[in-house]
Write a structure and sequence with these properties.
Layout (H helix, E strand, L loop, with lengths): L20 H9 L3 H6 L5 H9 L2 E4 L1 H13 L4 H9 L8 E6 L8 H12 L5 E6 L12 H4 L6 E5 L3 E3 L12 E5 L3 E3 L8 E2 L5 E5 L9 E2 L5 E5 L8 H4 L8 E5 H4 L15 E7 L4 H12 L6 E6 L8 H9 L15 E7 L3 H12 L6 E6 L5 H12 L9 E5 L5 H10 L7
Parallel strand pairs: 1-2, 2-3, 3-4, 4-6, 5-7, 6-9, 8-10, 9-11, 11-12, 12-13, 13-14, 14-15, 15-16, 16-17
Helix pairs in contact: 1-3, 10-11, 11-12
Amino acid sequence: MAWRLKAVPDASRDLISQLPLEVKDRILGFLRTPEAARTAMLSKHWNDVWLQHGQLTFDWEFLHSVRKCFEDEGRTLVNIINNILFLRAGPVKKFTLQISCDDPTPQQSDVDRWCLFLSRNGVEELKICLDSTDDWEEYKLPFCLLSCRTIKQLIVRGPFIDLPVNDCGIFSNVTSLAFFKVEFKCSVSGIASSINIPKLEELAFGYCPGIHKFEFCSPKLEILSVIVCMYDVVESRWLAPHLKAIKTLWLCGSSLMDIDVSVFPTAINLQVMKLYELNFGCQKQLAIAMQLLQKCPNLCELRIFANEFRGKDDQEAASRLLEDPDSGFVIQELKMLNTIKIESFSEFALEMLFMKMLLSRSPALERVVIVDSWDVNASEVRKIQRMLECFPRASPNAQIVCAGDYYASMRDDWLDTHGFSLSEI
């Protein structure tokens, strides 16, 4: 009689531990950094996976989860980040550092060390957020990040950037750049020479002083976003060179105040325009927005988030601007425009006139979405829709949809596109 030996299972091994390394690394990618770090205690297999894991996030959620260590064990935030970062056995491809003014603030030398390590260890996606405090006012983003050849996506908030006199190959492989509350300075007085960023496709500025010192040349640029403070100026000569190539332009009402559209080339490739906080009650903003529309013959989508605080002093002048064909601002046909979305819409005469004009000059229009102010009730929404549906439409296919009690989807769109919400900056 043949005897068969029964295999005894190895209690130290499990099905998950036998998965390929790339699968286990992907599992860690779905965990927050503290949870991913704890897997190192499961077994040697998982410790090896953790040490090679190249996606680290030290954000506000991480700081909250490890805050108890500061009190119970006498450890510092710098100690914890050093112990995690400098023990990597493989490249760190994705790194996030978000520190608020309420958190224990690292020294600039600490952040410099982290940035230097990342620049030498294959970082591809980098997000650095340092909220402004007295300690951070003079923090400078290390040059090693500007010149790092592996970075493809860079999001920076807080520190200033000292631009070199010549490009020195900075941002050579970056495809996406976003700067928020970043001050641009020059190594010498005057304007920095133009920086060639050959692979850049997306560029965003949010409330950044000195953006005109960021002179750049990017032949592949498709998306340009510029949100400025009320008293900042967007120079026409700085914006004009990029209008021929880009496909999406995002501006705010404040940025329109000092723009001279007459010097702009025809934006032949521009398909999407987004105007944030446009003040319909401001004659100058409305006039420049209309001039800008005339520079975009192939525009397909127009999105506007209206400023809820509409000035009353200019409303009569703005109304004349829309109604008077001799004003020079009444737009020509928008032959390619198929989608219009206006948020924070009201039934003021000025908005109604603006919509009447767009409906009458858009023969390819298919979809119109009107999102009313958050305090508008359902009966008012229906009233606005009926009024809009009475306006003559150049397109027989134009469908109008009105919605109420809706808040700030354009802000969510900014978050999806640029990595920060407008409310955060």
